Sequence to fold (703 residues):
Amino acid sequence: MTETKKAKPVPASNGTTNGAAPLEGYAPVMYDIARENADEMKQHYYQMVLLRRFEERAREMYTKAKIGGYCHLNLGEEATIIGLMAALQEPDYIYTNYREHGYIIARGVEPGPVMAELFGKEDGISGGRGGSMHLFDASKHFMGGYGIVGGQCPLATGAAYAINYKGDPGVVLCQVGDSTTNIGAWYESLNLAALYNLPVIFFIVNNGFGMGTSVEEHSSEPDLWKKGDSFRIHGERVDGTDVLAVRDAARRLRERAEKERKPAIMDVVSFRFIGHSVIDSDRYRDQAEVKANRLKFDPITKFEQQLREAGMIDDAYVKEIGDRVEGEVQAAIDFADKSPAPKMEDMYQYMYATDVPNIISDAERELFEARLSGGK
Amino acid sequence: MPELTLLEAIRQGLDEAMAADARVFVFGEDVGRRGGVFRVTEGLLDKYGPLRVIDSPLAESVIVGACIGAAMNDARPIAEIQFADFIYPAFNQIISEAARIRYRSNDDWHVPLVIRAPYGGGIHGALYHSQSIEALFCHVPGLKVVAPATPYDAKALLKASLADPDPVLFLEHKKCYRLIKGQVPDGDYQVEIGKADIKRQGSDLTVLTYGLMLHYSLEAAEVLAGEDIDVEVVDLRTLRPLDTATILASVRKTSKLLIVHEDNLTGGLGGELAAIVAQEAFEQLDAPIMRVCGPDVPAMPYAKPLEEAFLPSPATIADAMRVLAAY
Fold:
């Protein structure tokens, strides 16, 4: 191994707005904010602020031990999520990794049941069984957060196969992290997706780091959008701090996937505001640089600035949204607080769809009842 | 002797092994700059450099597979699986390759490889960060599986694993990492792989256990001592190969056997232990063999009450001891 490569984990604008030549691989930015629908823009802004505040409060709840285990936040990825979700349609299916709170909220699940899941409560979206990394909602075609890196890739590929097979509308969105592009399941999925012309978009949230290892250190091809080349899969890079750039690229590739049955890779670059998870002290990054980058690549301030310049929002609106979101997130916390804990006897539920004899042996039932009575 | 946590003892063992043998290197996700998710490998990158403490790509199959190849080529790699729950992409490499190379090469090649994997629950880690995996690997001839529960044993068994010419799966209980402290000698010493240890002498019944459950069983045994029930607690330490001599001697002495493990009941190590004892010490048994194990549900759930319901506790272990003692 040669000397450690220097990390360059920061998003870059493609430069078209200031007349410079686009960077290699970047999707063209075509939107003109002045021509956008003001109500839609304000909705995007509200949702981004909601995700930000939800995650900040989740972090706080973790420090208060209301949330335990492992908890990964979307701080800094708000434009990536909202831009993507604005492009997806109702029949589409969504698979994500374990950093998924924002995705399921943006998909339309109320913050209350999401927070309740983080708290491990009965009213949590997964009944408290999974916690932060395992959010599911079949009614929203939200096919889950996956705790094993890359675990979702073959599944998403298969879901796209079923869409083709049945002639259904829609596409599959498979969200992964940058590090997932190194695991075997990723390559196996790319091959199938291209070979069978599947309508699936592999959406890389490239925040520059797989936990504590930078993209340059973990991937021999740090231009992740190129990693589908040998599978003849089109890829492009998008500035993940620009909500409308993400929306436009996702919309275009989604339509292409649906109409032409062609998979695509989106390499969506953003900046991870904090460590990998709530308990990660982030000692492997230069903290002065992190602090500066948080300001430089904050997708919310960037979008807020765009909307102000377009005359769509003002101080009063920003305050109004701030207050509204504060109340909604507090209501989610209250909901989670008041929800009862899951019942111990429910632990054996949902192992099989039908009655299966002897799921619990007499010996195990006795042991379990002893546990329910606290060993007395 | 200095007192160390289980985690510190493993770190010290790694450090000493790397200092003593230039062939030893560490390969795994975030083991370098971050020092590992649990900080077991903290400080090793500074000391031994990026050639020997390698931040691997996120790809378990090639983490283990590349280490197998390096081991066959006279290196002494230590592969780290970040959480034991993540080991399944490497399952094929471990079972089909590492465990069989000596056998299928007719003793031409061997794989002196250590695979470290933090396992077990009680830390609120939920469905993919809490599981016990040992039974799946204990089934495989060609592999050795160790699960030390004390700092002393952890360092010693790590050294023994590194000295072993065959692949060893080295299991570290996550909850024990910082919870369990103990005396650890400086410098080199070893505990033989395949040797159990009687952690508490007793005459009324035998407990066979390992990992976190060792500590819960010892706690329960102390409670039972106050009730005039004298429990012997055997720490298996090595799960494959089993120390049948120590196991059988203890059961023959006490005539009663309780098996405690966190891994779920059906197909767990307890079944094998019970079969060995039933076959070899049937006439010395005064009671049916009992098991306190994790329940047969697909994974340890997240929510606190569900996690508590899953894990055997000192109280539930003590209850089973009482039933067995009264039999």
